[in-house]
Amino acid sequence: LAKTTQPISMDSYEGQEVNITCSHNNIATNDYITWYQQFPSQGPRFIIQGYKTKVTNEVASLFIPADRKSSTLSLPRVSLSDTAVYYCLVGDPTGTASKLTFGTGTRLQVTL
Amino acid sequence: NAGVTQTPKFRILKIGQSMTLQCTQDMNHNYMYWYRQDPGMGLKLIYYSVGAGITDKGEVPNGYNVSRSTTEDFPLRLELAAPSQTSVYFCASSHGKETQYFGPGTRLLVL
């Protein structure tokens, strides 16, 4: 299993760009990197997924360097509603479901 | 399209009691999952199913049982509740092994 390491918490002001880095040194060739967002008292929600280089959607961007040993979730111009826990997952989408592990995540606090 | 629904939202059990947590999805997903989340922690996979009639253990299956008789439903059974099973339980579903869609969760307190 590819273990991930993320900062426990981050603070940001509204309107700033937030970058959350995830370390996954033993990522396997078939593994993808997926980020989920979780608000209090709710289930996690998919944000973005990527394999290499850069992926962008309407919510975030995901940057993955060539060695794939880390990845960075970028949230442009955060608002108060982006306050949540963000989980980085590494796993093979064609492998068994039991290989997907949620770590403790990064708790992002956005303030005015 | 309701997505993934879970019942009940909250339950208090006495030690040794049993209960079933219900999970239903209306997206025709073949994969379904049960997770538990302890306070301040990430989610841990309890059981998962790749289709009706097929289930398999996840990371923390002890004390739980599941069944999958239909595509839509994936109930989680606790036979002898213990205080260590106090947690929030999330059900999720996915089309194949891709993005998982989560339900709102069931908060369980065992006293």
Globular, elongated, flat, extended or rod-shaped: what is the shape of chain A? globular
Helix content of chain A: under 10%
- Helices and strands of chain A, in N-to-C order? EEEEEEEEE
Structural class of chain B: mainly beta
The secondary-structure class of chain A comes to mainly beta
Total number of strands of chain A: 9
Q: State the assembly state of the protein chains.
A: heterodimer
Largest interface comes to:
A-B, 22 and 28 residues
**Number of discrete helical segments of chain B:** 0
Distance between the termini of chain A: 39 Å
Q: Compute the CA-based radius of gyration of chain B.
A: 13 Å
Principal-axis shape of chain B equals globular
Side-by-side strand order of the widest sheet of chain A: 1-9-8-3-4
**Helix-residue proportion of chain B:** under 10%
Total E-strand runs of chain B? 11
Distance between the termini of chain B: 36 Å
The low-pLDDT segments of chain B are none
Using only CA atoms, what is the Rg of chain A? 13 Å
Mean pLDDT of chain B: 93
Stretches of chain A where pLDDT falls below 50 for ≥5 residues? Answer: none
Q: Biggest sheet of chain A: strands, sense, closure?
A: 5 strands, mixed
